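Hi V.,

Quick status before I head out on leave. The structure for the redesign project is tokenized and pasted below; the design run finished overnight.
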């Protein structure tokens, strides 16, 4: 048996920069991938934390991410979340490659968020279903809540795909916020440290925290702003408050996953009420079927889904040297 190829974190980051990852996800949704068919993620307890299992299949591949969440690890000098992705051929279920699961998450999460933001900006500009690369569709003044590596990757992806005119970093730890702001100022983006009240002046607000409680006052968000909340998942955790969720036109990755896990939504309305009120999906947004009313904030909330992993993993595998599937 030949040795199973392993794509490490450095190779994944090199092969799947933000623009490529966003394009792969966009192509999949425009090609008919249905997130509502995604398998629910599975949790299994461990003494040191828990397993998180995320199986999926796409047009050409099957795959599963096996991640571990160990809350005590940071104090021991180890990552809280670690994992491996196994990619298989869809027809034969033959293993094709293993990949760094943590890096895959760091690539696909900001790519999905950026895909949503870019199409929300297009919808706001009356260009629903188009790729917003033209003048006037920059992310503008961006406020990012959170100082983690995910927050940093979200800034990188949003700047690469949409462009950022000014950046405000908001975090619980002033030192970490200052470090992140200085990094991006050094890369040419006017950046400063701010407070939660600064969301009032933001065109785009990105929440990339692990907070279980709202991280800003939803009444402060401008009527023409775009908000993305992606850091927390589970019905007992929410980064945005019910006021914003009720004010906004809402887009989710998938309806079933959102009603199952999106704590950003359920405190504002029950699952039955959301079903009645209507939730737009990322697929509908990308395919031009989302037309929000003017004067309403736009909110994207994501919990992370297995289809996102397999889409990016498949593209990485092909670029790594795997055989490219035939075009249907």
């Amino acid at each position: 048996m030949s040795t199973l190829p392993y794509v490490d974190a450095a190779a994944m980051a090199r092969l799947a920069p933000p623009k490529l990852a966003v394009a792969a996800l966009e192509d999949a949704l425009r090609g008919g991938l249905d997130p509502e068919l995604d398998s629910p993620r599975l949790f299994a307890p461990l003494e040191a934390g828990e397993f998180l299992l995320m199986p999926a299949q796409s047009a050409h591949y099957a795959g599963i991410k096996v991640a571990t969440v160990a809350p005590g690890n940071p104090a021991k000098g180890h990552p809280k979340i670690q994992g491996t992705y196994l990619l298989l051929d869809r027809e034969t279920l033959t293993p094709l490659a293993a990949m760094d699961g943590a890096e895959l998450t760091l690539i696909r999460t900001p790519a999905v968020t950026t895909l949503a933001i870019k199409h929300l900006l297009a919808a706001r500009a009356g260009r629903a279903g188009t790729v917003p690369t033209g003048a006037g569709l920059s992310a503008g003044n961006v406020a990012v809540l959170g100082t983690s590596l995910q927050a940093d990757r979200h800034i990188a992806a949003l700047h690469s795909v949409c462009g950022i005119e000014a950046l405000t970093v908001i975090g619980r730890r002033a030192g970490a916020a200052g470090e992140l702001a200085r990094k991006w100022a050094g890369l040419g983006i006017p950046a400063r440290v701010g407070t939660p009240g600064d969301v009032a002046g933001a065109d785009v607000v990105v929440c990339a925290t692990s907070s279980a409680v709202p991280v800003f006052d939803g009444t402060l968000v401008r009527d023409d702003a775009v908000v993305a909340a992606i850091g927390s998942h589970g019905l007992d955790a929410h980064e945005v408050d019910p006021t914003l969720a009720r004010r906004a036109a809402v887009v989710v990755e998938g309806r079933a996953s959102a009603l199952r896990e999106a704590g950003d939504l359920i405190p504002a309305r029950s699952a039955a009420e959301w079903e009645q009120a209507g939730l737009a999906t990322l697929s509908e947004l990308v395919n031009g079927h989302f037309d929000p009313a003017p004067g309403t904030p736009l909110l994207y909330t994501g919990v992370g889904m297995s289809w996102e992993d397999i889409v990016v993993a498949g593209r990485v595998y092909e670029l790594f040297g795997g055989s490219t599937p035939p075009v249907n």
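Above is the designed sequence. The mean pLDDT is 92.

G. will cover questions while I'm gone.

Best,
W.
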